[in-house]
Amino acid sequence: MGRALAARNLTLNERLDAAWERLMAQDDLGVIHERVQLARERDVGFRGAAPLGEPVNAAYPLPPLPARATILAADGSQVYPSIHAAALYYLTNIGVFVYHHGTEDLPEQITEPALFYSEKDVRDENGQAITNTAVNARRNVAELQMLARETWNRRNADSPLLAISDGPLLFWVGKDVPDGKRLEQDYLGALVHLHDTHASAASTYGQSASLIGYVDRPTSAFVVSLLHLLGLDDDDVREAALKSNGDLEGLADQPLMFRLLKPGERSAVMVQQSPQNKRYHDKGESYEIAFFYLNVGQSGAYHLARVEMPMWVARSQPLLDQVHALTFDQCQLMWRYPYALTRADELAVIRAAERTRLDDMIEIELLRNEQIVERSEKLESKTVRHGRTRYRPK
Amino acid sequence: MNEDTLQQPVIGSVLRASTVGFVCGTRSQEIVHPSFGAFVRTRHGQLNDIDVIGLIHAISIDDDPLVRQLILANNIKPSVERDQRENRMVPVEIGVVNVGYVQVGHIYHNLPPRPPLSLDPVQLCDTETILRFTERLDFLRLVLNANGDFPTEELVAAALLQAASVRPPGERLDFLIGAGRRLTGLLANDLPRLQHVLQLIKPT
Hints:
The complex is a heterodimer of chains A (394) and B (204). Helix content of chain A is 44%, strand content 17%. By secondary structure, chain A is an alpha+beta fold. Chain A has two domains: 59-217 and 261-350, archaeoglobus fulgidus dsm 4304 fold (2-Layer Sandwich), CATH 3.30.2170; 353-385, no CATH class. In chain A, strand 8 and strand 9 form a beta hairpin. Chain A binds chain B through residues 99-101, 103-107, 109, 332-335, 339, 342-343, 346, and chain B through 66, 69-70, 72-73, 75-80, 82-83, 86-88.
């Protein structure tokens, strides 16, 4: 296994050298934009990145940290529906953590659990129990909605607002989510709410509201895909050639960025080309999602994050600088991950013991209402086999 | 229970218990009151008629991955410190060895017949309770013979010094001399231990 991994690393290193050479040669933004435009026109399924307005082969240094800011982070967790439980239900718990950067104010903690058990919530149109994917999608939307609401509630702050969402900002759902279309609309609605907060804070108080999606240790290859596209002849810009990254296939952006970025530095702002992002763009130019890579590590211990943001942030140099500096600062508090997100995750998480307690409470309520509690034999046998003791109400 | 007892600060709630001792949980910003060797008592609820009296023998803060990470990052800001201490429910555990109990107003110098119940509040003993309880020193034998992993001589000394401190200045020396005599009887077969405890309670 060691030999096999070493051999794979060797080839990856060769690909990395090739990608690096290609990246360093990209001095002309006009050429890059022309090539991306060609891929778009031919509709060849290009899913790589396109630079927004900065050279892609440069690193952008850490700007000064704003003296004050209000940072809000949201995260969620869930109890999935189980057909083996006493009742078919699911639970989501959203946590929002508010950190007052630059002050000694006590951070705020907000949690919102929600229990769903009605037939329309837990079953699809065919009467089947909804999937875990559907619960994840609903939780994602609830997270952004709560983040938007709490940010809006603080729009009169005398410092910039930064809302941090866990994970990518582009949201889409599969066909197994019964209310997928409505969820996508609700998600975009939350984005608009955040943009309204920015507009309100800017016009009334001269402040701003930014949104980012924080992706830790990204495995994306958007820049590598761009380099592959740029390495093709015009005639070769075809769907077949873009199904893989050709001679760079298997290489992710991370090692490339580690060569380019020192701790604190970010990459150029780029836009991922995808049908989902086009839908966001069609909603309004401010809602298309851009990103930059940020080295949030320290000397000798590099760590990469992809920081996604809507276009109203990406196109504003002051907001971009705020996002860059505040995100890095948040990561330094926790070594290399945003402190506010860590705490939001802690607020949201539902532990196994809490889930067991919830199950017990539901069973008690069913019994109080003279319902027969039928436990799945499968679940009961697991309890017996694994020797789990449960102290049940008599 | 008198007015002073009711006004004593609650330092936590019973987490787990037996007839020989209990562990009380509290939040990290609430550990300014309890100290090693302090007399504490539980306050019974409706299901129990016994207030257990004990001595704090250990105060420990649980290991916490988030705090480890913050220490590693070495960049702790005041707001983060406040967040950790005031918002996060990092449990602090206070270990208590039982030395007596109060039942229907009477003080007993023996192990309680039943342990306190989970979530019973735990208070520091008020001066009057300490005075009444330490009129007799039968609890010394219980502590010296305890099998816990705590330093029994230091615990006995800390308790005796606290009991002396709540007495009027003119009575303190006599109290400590009386305690020393009692210890001499209890540790007659273990002179190094006796010498050590007497050294610890010796008035300066």
